[in-house]
Amino acid sequence: MFRCVRACVHLSRCTRVGRRGLHGASQATTVGVVGCGNVGAAVSHNLHRQGFRVVGAYDPDPARYADLPPGVTYGILAGLSKDKVWIDHSTTDSDQTMVYSEEAQKVGAYVLEAPITGGLASLKKGQMVVHLGGDKRVADAMTPLLNASYSKVFYVGEIGTAMMVKVISNMLACVHIIAMGEVLMLGKRAQLDLKTLWQAIRVSAGNSFVWETGAPLVFTGSYDPGFTMALQNKDLQLGYDMARKYESVHDRHPDGHELPPPPEGGGLRTPEEVLVLSPVGWHRDP
């Protein structure tokens, strides 16, 4: 159950929701982080810088503890109890999240799904967006905690909805990256100045978040945004599962799984490496 949980907050000063209401998170709230990889480590440091008390952490790989703020003790919580809140930053199946929420309710605890979007570099700067799904009262109570780590906290709706929004967002981003690689190749073959092309599109109808953040990686020679193809394919699969469940047809998104192989010895690993470097740096004619 804990493998999808990224943060657990104990509201030690809270009273019951039905009697006096759920108190908001503050710098007196103790925070434990479950999963200390890219997201967990960055969130821990963001909270620590803002004065929140990150007191405990758990990760299957003990080597990751070295990247956490000072003073954090290590160990996993045995389970949820009354007035504890799971804040789940992972991108996973929305139905699974709803099952976790039901289990938490049995012991008087709460689950907030909080998938994040914007890229690892933005997360480390506290500039990412987090989508919230769950009880609105719990979301409002946790907003001060989330504001310490994110530039915008966007409440979507009941549990399950935020995860679906995140999956759809990642599906769009993948298609945008593919399109970006193709038009950059077109610009290169047409002998356009690619930086001028980029600036022109930024003020045109074709602009997008991916265009603004992904294309500059090509110009700097960096193709490692910290998001692997395995993670992208996992998110795409979640989208395909949604499409089957709701009987929605998607013709373009399978393009994300139909990627050209890397050049021999290239060792490409990330979406930008395969979807941007491949069309711009090398090309196979049909």
UniProtKB/TrEMBL annotation:
A Pfam family annotated for this chain is NAD_binding_11
Q: Which GO terms describe its molecular function?
A: 3-hydroxyisobutyrate dehydrogenase activity; NAD binding; NADP binding
Q: Which GO terms describe its cellular component?
A: mitochondrion
Q: Where is the 3-hydroxyisobutyrate dehydrogenase-like NAD-binding domain?
A: 160-246
InterPro entries this protein is in?
Answer: 6-PGluconate_DH-like_C_sf (IPR008927), 6PGD_dom2 (IPR013328), 6PGDH_NADP-bd (IPR006115), D-isomer_DH_CS1 (IPR029752), HIBADH-like_NADP-bd (IPR029154), NAD(P)-bd_dom_sf (IPR036291)
What residue stretches are annotated with the 6-phosphogluconate dehydrogenase NADP-binding domain? 75-157
The UniProt entry's GO biological process terms, in alphabetical order, are: L-valine catabolic process
Q: Where is this region: Disordered?
A: 250-270
User: What's the protein here called?
Assistant: 3-hydroxyisobutyrate dehydrogenase-like 2
Q: Which organism is it from?
A: Homarus americanus (American lobster)
- The UniProt gene name for this protein comes to Hibadh-L2
